[in-house]
Amino acid sequence: MVRNRFFLVPVIAMIGIDIGQFMSGVVVVEAVFGWPGIGQLAWQAIQQVDIPIIMGVTLVSALAIVMGNLLADILAPLVDPRIRSR
């Protein structure tokens, strides 16, 4: 049974990498469904050249990407004990 969870390591790695793509897809999803959110805020700030809002959205997005990758790196050794953290 323990061997069955080893297939999760590449899945966890891809989820960590794909968080950036999820953040970029937010703009399209919010535009299609008319939901207010960070993507719509970023788009309006870009159109109005509102630099502080653009910087804030970029910072929050970058932080989400870094945290997603960090979480993926922390979970990988827990799923597969052959991976060592230093």
Which terms would index this structure?
86 residues; mainly alpha
Short description:
Helices cover 77% and strands 0% of the residues. It has 86 residues and is mainly alpha-helical.
> How many distinct beta strands?
0
Distance between the termini: 27 Å
Q: What is the arithmetic mean of pLDDT?
A: 83
Q: Tell me, what's the shape?
A: elongated
How much of the residues is beta strand, in percent?
A: under 5%
Largest sheet data = none
Quaternary structure type = single chain
Please, how many helices?
3
Q: What is the domain tally? A: 1
Topology as H/E string?
HHH
Low-confidence parts lasting 5 or more residues at pLDDT below 50?
Answer: none
Structural class: mainly alpha
Radius of gyration: 17 Å
Name the helicity range. over 70%
Main location: membrane
InterPro entries: MetI-like
Domain ABC transmembrane type-1: 8-84
Membrane topology: Multi-pass membrane protein
Helices and strands, with pairings:
Blueprint: H1 8-33, H2 38-48, H3 51-79
Helix pairs in contact: 1-2, 1-3, 2-3
Model description:
The protein is an all-alpha fold and 86 residues long. It has one domain (9-79). Helices cover 77% and strands 0% of the residues. The protein is built from three helices and no strands. The protein has helices at 8-33, 38-48, 51-79. Helix 1 (8-33) crosses helix 2 (38-48) and helix 1 (8-33) packs antiparallel against helix 3 (51-79). The longest helix has 29 residues, at 51-79. The two termini are 27 Å apart. Keywords: Cell membrane, Membrane, Transmembrane, Transmembrane helix, Transport. It is found in: Cell membrane. Its main location: membrane. It comes from Halteria grandinella. Residues 8-84 form the ABC transmembrane type-1 domain.
